Every structure is written in structure tokens, then in C-alpha cells.
Amino acid sequence: MFNVGDTVVYPYHGAGKIKDMEEKDILGKKMTYYVVYFPLNHVTLMLPENRIGESGLRKTIAMEQLEEVANALKACEAPVKKEAARPYSKENETLLKTGCILDACSVIANLTSKKGARNNGLHMEDRKNLDRAKQFIISELMLVKEMSEDEALSFIDEHAEAT
């Protein structure tokens, strides 16, 4: 499925690199684990191989998909929902949990549009979701395009325009 050295994305954690595969004896049962290092937050996780399919782990996007990412970051022209902060926040959290970069772009586009339409900025939950979405995309851009964190943030900011 995956090999040591592959760059992967783990939902809600962002992009990382498979550093190793280890076999562990857990309660008398041998299990293989992927050891994944996430450079943006300096975290290493061990993911059981037999649960990778249901975990949402995927390979990072290809360079050819960067234009699609840039387009998905553009703020939507749909009207911003009024007085629906809670359900809207939950919708954004659900999108972030999918692990799909285009869903994270959608969160940024929606919240950027919402931020532009509000006089007093975003609610705290929306700000957190916006930051999470940016960090998620930054982590993937850093590995795919070998950008620094600042360069990846600039890429996002350049393409996410308020309408």
C-alpha cells in the first residue's frame, strides 16, 4: 500500500513522511505499523497497517494538482449564512476531518468570504477552523513543492481572496 519514504496525508494532522515500518508484538499478536513523521508540528505517529484503509491516509497531491488547489482557494461567491454559526462551524470541522486538500481549500474559501462580509471578523470557532485548514494545506505544500512554511502561507494568502 505505502512504502518507506512516501509522503502522505493523515486527516486532521496534515502531511508527513513515512520514516519506517515496524513490527510490534501486542498481546501476543504481531502487527505492522507505519511510522509517520509530520515535520510541520514535529510529531511522529505509529499507524497500524491493518487500519490504514479506514484511517483516510492518502498520498500527497501531485505537482500537477497545485493549480486546482489554487483555484479552490478562491473565495466563493455564495451568500454567507447568517446566524448559523454553530452548524456552519460543524460543517467546516467535518470537511477538515476528510483529509482532502480541496475540502480544506473550501473551508478557507468559505471562511475568507465570511470574514470579508462581517464587520467584526470571524467567531472564535471559525478562526480556529481557518487556522487548522491553513496548517493542513501548508503541511502538504511544504512536502509537495518543497516550500518553507512562510512560502506556503503566502501561496494560500495570494489565492484566497475575499469577494
UniProtKB/TrEMBL annotation:
GO terms for biological process: rRNA transcription. Residues 1-112 form the CarD-like/TRCF RNAP-interacting domain. SUPFAM superfamilies: CarD-like. SMART domains: CarD_TRCF. It comes from the Bacteria. This is CarD family transcriptional regulator. It comes from Salipaludibacillus aurantiacus.
